[in-house]
Amino acid sequence: MTTMTLAALAQQGELGTGGVRTWLLDNVVPLVLLAVALLLLWLGGGKGDNAGVMRRLGGVVIALALIGLAVSGLGVDVGEWLAGLFTG
User: Fold this and answer.
1) Which residues, 6+ apart, have CB-to-CB distance to 57 below 8 Å?
2) Model confidence over 30-71: pLDDT tens digits?
3) Which residue among 14, 27, 31, 68 is the one 20 to 30 A from 88 at the CA level?
4) Nearest residue to 51 (alpha-carbon basis) of 40, 37, 61, 66
């Protein structure tokens, strides 16, 4: 019975991943960012390894930029711009 209901909803176009995507962006991404920030403070703050913290922070900034491109949907535009640099 459930399979028939899901098939009917899928045919009508009422099923989607919009709710899951919104939930992930609103809940999981901030928690992961908070965990990364706390981990950076814990790893480098107590040891005085400022260079190591900055090196890791560079990786985090690059990862945040990639997440921002993926979430905003501007990845295609950036790809076209990069391709335009090489194709003229």
Assistant:
1) 40
2) 888 888 878 777 776 667 777 777 787 788 888 888 888 877
3) 68
4) 40
